């Protein structure tokens, strides 16, 4: 069984929606010493969920594994090359482009102000409660709400408040 087939679906609905998904990709919950790293999407009406905070990731290139996809996306979007472990879940971006996405958790020692943001308006780190208080893209809200990061991430005193 391939790694991609072992990652559980985030919800039963994601398992059902996978049959009608359009394309594949990968997203990451990125944690740094300051908290969860999110980016403010461009305010461009041609993209899904413009002007909202979101996770990093994107579409897979032809022949690319989900792990290769997220590694490439993080380098392209943030200029970081963290170690990427196995996928922790699968989710369908039903509010966006309907891709089946593999979800990864990524740890980095790099702070947002040290990252090179190449896509979006801003990058910052938040504790989970503050992140859930932001204007999040629907997919990011679903993933973070179901992630179980609450207590561990919220203890991180270096994270920003959403105010």
Automatic annotation (TrEMBL):
EC number: 3.6.1.55
MF-aspect GO terms: 8-oxo-7,8-dihydrodeoxyguanosine triphosphate pyrophosphatase activity
Cofactors named for this entry: Mg(2+)
Nudix hydrolase domain sequence ranges: 19-149
Superkingdom in the source lineage: Bacteria
One Pfam family in the UniProt entry: NUDIX
Key words of the record: Hydrolase
Protein name according to UniProt: 8-oxo-dGTP diphosphatase
Native species: Curtobacterium luteum
Lineage, opening ranks: Bacteria, Bacillati, Actinomycetota, Actinomycetes, Micrococcales
């Amino acid at each position: 069984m391939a790694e991609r087939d072992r990652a559980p679906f985030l919800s039963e609905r994601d398992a059902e929606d996978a049959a009608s998904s359009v394309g594949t990709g990968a997203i990451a919950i990125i944690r740094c010493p300051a908290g969860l790293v999110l980016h403010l999407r461009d305010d461009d009406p041609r993209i899904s969920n413009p002007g909202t905070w979101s996770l990093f990731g994107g579409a897979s290139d032809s022949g690319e594994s989900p792990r290769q996809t997220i590694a490439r996306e993080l380098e392209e979007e943030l200029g970081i090359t963290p170690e990427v472990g196995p996928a922790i879940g699968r989710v369908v971006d039903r509010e966006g482009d309907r891709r089946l996405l593999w979800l990864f958790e990524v740890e980095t020692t790099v702070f947002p102000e040290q990252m090179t943001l190449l896509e979006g308006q801003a990058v910052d780190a938040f504790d989970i409660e503050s992140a859930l208080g932001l204007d999040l893209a629907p997919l990011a809200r679903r993933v973070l709400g179901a992630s179980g990061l609450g207590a561990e991430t919220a203890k991180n005193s270096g994270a920003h408040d959403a105010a």
